[in-house]
Amino acid sequence: MKIIKYCAIVLLIAFAATGCKKQDQPIKPIQSATFTAVVEDPSALFPPTQTITNINIIAGTNGWSITQNPTNTWCITEKNFGAGDFKLKLTINANATGLDRTTQIKLVSTNASLAPVLLNIKQSK
Q1: For residue 58, which of 104, 103, 111 has the smallest C-alpha distance?
Q2: Which residue from 22, 40, 67, 109 could staple onto 114, CB 3.0 to 4.6 Å apart?
Q3: Comparing C-alpha atoms, which of 48, 53, 47 is closest to residue 97?
Q4: pTM here?
Q5: How large a percentage of the chain has pLDDT more than 70?
Q6: Does 26 map to a domain?
Q7: How many domains does the chain have?
Q8: Mean pLDDT throughout 105-125?
Q9: 71 occurs within a structural domain
Q10: How many Å separate Cα 96 from the centre of its chain?
Q11: In what helix (H) or strand (E) does residue 14 lie, and over which residues does it extend?
């Protein structure tokens, strides 16, 4: 009976010792040194009709986010954040105001050492 208890204790200690092994953590990706964004159709002045174009974002391994004027309801991005290289859909709604209008889209990388990208969007009346 003592041998069974002794074997059970040894097995319990062995399981505990091997079960607590530290596992390797995933390697954090190296941040990219590149961050650019350009409008696919870089028109100086978009027409007053609805236009759908894309913003081509080159971010490598970095994440990115978008901010713009909260009163802007006519120039809409498909999403406001993401990671890596991405083709972001940009919808410029029809202009029925009778006036030219302008907005600015600001893209910021998660790599704080990279400058934000500012895109000026202009639409005719």
Answers
A1: 111
A2: 109
A3: 48
A4: 0.73
A5: 92
A6: no
A7: 1
A8: 95
A9: yes
A10: 32
A11: helix 2-19
Q: Residues 80-85: contacts with CB within 8 Å, 24+ apart?
A: 82/57, 83/59, 83/110, 84/59, 84/60, 85/57, 85/58, 85/59, 85/60
CATH number for the domain including 83? 2.60.40.10
Whether 28 is covered by a domain: the verdict is: no
Alpha carbon distance 100, 122 (integer Å):
7
Mean pLDDT is lowest, of 13-22, 57-66, 73-82, 86-95, for: 13-22
Tokens for 103? 């907005």
Do residues 44 and 72 lie in contact, with contact meaning Cβ atoms separated by under 8 Å? no
Structural domain boundaries, residue 106: 36-123
Name the helix (H) or strand (E) containing 7.
helix 2-19
Cα torsion 101, 37, 54, 40: sign: positive
Mean pLDDT (whole number) for 82-89: 96
Per-residue confidence (pLDDT) for residue 31, from 0 to 100 = 82
DSSP tag of 31: P
